[in-house]
Design brief:
Largest sheet: 7 strands, parallel
Bound molecules: nicotinamide-adenine-dinucleotide
Radius of gyration: 17 Å
Distance between the termini: 33 Å
Number of domains: 1
CATH class: Alpha Beta
Number of helices: 8
Strand order of the largest sheet: 3-2-1-4-5-6-7
CATH architecture: 3-Layer(aba) Sandwich
Length: 251
């Protein structure tokens, strides 16, 4: 019940999917949750339900980060947990078909967001007892996907950026941990819609299942459970780690 009791947690891209499941679970385990998203109405609705704060926030925008962090500082005075969850670009193109413009858009929301967010969190957490930064990467941050050039690049960068932040914070005695989570295919609303839109939805489903030896695809709560662990003190000796939650995809 109280695994993150009393902590202030911010979840980016928190209005839907893995972010929303995470926000709900952190709140259920005692955290005060700040839900941020480009979908302002969605962020505010969920935050209202959870008794936290909802903020309109494009995670790729430095100005939006500064405004969001200022609002957190103003309302709560500190931040204990940052979940860099927002990310885009899955399934949108191989190296021959993806444009440089696509690449920059994906990098901005999927990777720049983690850089700016980590920078803001370190500034706010250091000197205040530390905290936990959890970055949602992907199986494609470990194993590349031919049809996802920019996404693989962005998620791979998030994986090592996480470790760089972890090392810097540890060496400086900040007591700030930084870890990454690597989900396999998760049945979010967007993912289900994508599978249903596919020309041969049954074949796609079978192909995805074949890539997950465990025999089923994940639910947002499967990832939220891992994020909760990394946010809580139960993982106090973990930093720079990769928590792979993928039904065996990367084996
Ligand atoms: N769903 C999967 O199968 C899967 C697998 C591996 C990794 N991931 C990663 O997990 C994270 C969450 O994925 P999801 O499938 O739950 O996402 P999603 O596509 O369901 O989107 C979640 C939320 O992100 C918000 N969002 C989109 N662009 C944003 C931006 N610029 N700034 C702030 N918010 C923004 C959306 O409005 C939405 O509410 C992403 O980083 C994704 O790459 C997902």
């Amino acid at each position: 019940m109280d695994r993150v009791k009393g902590k202030i947690a911010l979840v980016t891209g928190g209005a839907d999917g893995i972010g929303a499941a995470t926000a709900r679970l952190l709140a259920a385990e005692g955290a005060t949750v700040v839900v941020t998203d480009i979908n302002e109405a969605g962020a505010k609705a969920l935050a209202g339900e959870l008794g936290g704060m909802g903020i309109a926030h494009d995670a790729g925008s430095e100005a939006d980060w500064h405004a969001a962090i200022a609002a957190v500082k103003d309302r709560y005075g500190r931040l204990d947990v940052l979940v860099n969850n927002a990310g885009i670009g899955a399934g949108i193109g191989d190296i021959e078909h993806q444009t440089l413009d696509d690449y920059h858009k994906v990098m901005r929301v999927t990777c720049d967001s983690v850089f700016i967010g980590s920078k803001c969190a370190v500034e706010l957490m250091k000197g205040k007892g530390g905290g936990s930064i959890v970055n949602v990467s992907s199986i494609h941050g470990i194993k590349a996907a031919a049809h996802e050039a920019a996404y693989s690049a962005a998620k791979g960068a998030v994986r090592l950026l996480t470790k760089s932040v972890a090392l810097h914070c540890a060496r400086n005695g900040y007591r700030i941990r930084s870890n990454s989570v690597h989900p396999g295919y998760i049945l979010t609303t967007q993912m289900i819609a994508w599978m249903e839109r596919s020309a041969n939805s049954a074949d796609l489903n079978a192909a995805l299942l074949a890539q997950h030896p465990i025999g089923f695809l994940g639910q947002p709560e499967d990832i939220a459970n891992g994020i909760l662990y990394l946010a809580s003190e139960e993982s106090r000796f973990m930093t720079g780690s990769e928590l792979v939650i993928d039904g065996g995809y990367t084996l």
